[in-house]
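Researcher: Quick sanity check before group meeting.
Model: Go ahead. Protein one:
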Amino acid sequence: MCLGRFVFGLRTAPFAELSQAHQWRWASNQRFAQDPALQYVGRGESSLDLPCRLAPEITGGYSNIKLLQTMANRGEPYILLRGNGEVLGYWVIKEMQIREGDFFSDGVAQRIDFNLSLQRYSEQQGAIGAETPLLPLITRLF
């Protein structure tokens, strides 16, 4: 999987699972002496959680976490691609939780677990999605 130019892999940030949540919006309209009428008003929020585990001696280390934090600090949506080439659209980094453990005597962690939370960014929300076609973005990644 690839978020922008960050490729998730054994040497960067391997993840073992992907958790997805999707919502759909329904408005409730009150009616006299009847049950409320529901009206579909559109797609709601979608989110992804990527729990990752780093072992700096074997896999990626702190530099990969710093890179993801830098991407989040830019406040921009990034294209998300699956390993099979499926385009999942634009996503923003909402949250990152980091847990370190199994420390060496110098205080450096042997194990770094982090959870990356992404939220779908609608192309209609801003100029980036409206003006940037997907194909040039994809071709710039490789």
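Researcher: Fine. The other one?
Model: Protein two, sequence then structure:
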Amino acid sequence: MKIEGEAKLLTIYVGEQDHYHHRPLYQAIVETLKEKGIAGATVFRGIEGYGKRSRIHTASILRLSEDLPVVIQVVDREERIRSALPIIDEMVKEGLVTLQDVEVIVYRAE
């Protein structure tokens, strides 16, 4: 698959303890995106954050959290990203989903 030029960056913010059908939500999202043929996805585990409820979740030893923030980022062509949005909407019960324009400079695989 080749992607160059204009694309979309889909960013999904959820909690580490969020689940979808008895699996971690971030894992279910990545597997679903792969099944839909999306170019790729990366999951980042945050060390601290807060959301709508303003409760801070942190990896600090003094305030160890069991629900750290998780961010999933996906870059692909707009039509492919938009085709995945309905299932993402169904899967994410709590969290934040953003979509922004990006320019792909290099996307290579050997």
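Researcher: One line on it for the slide.
Model: DSSP finds two helices and eight strands in the chain.
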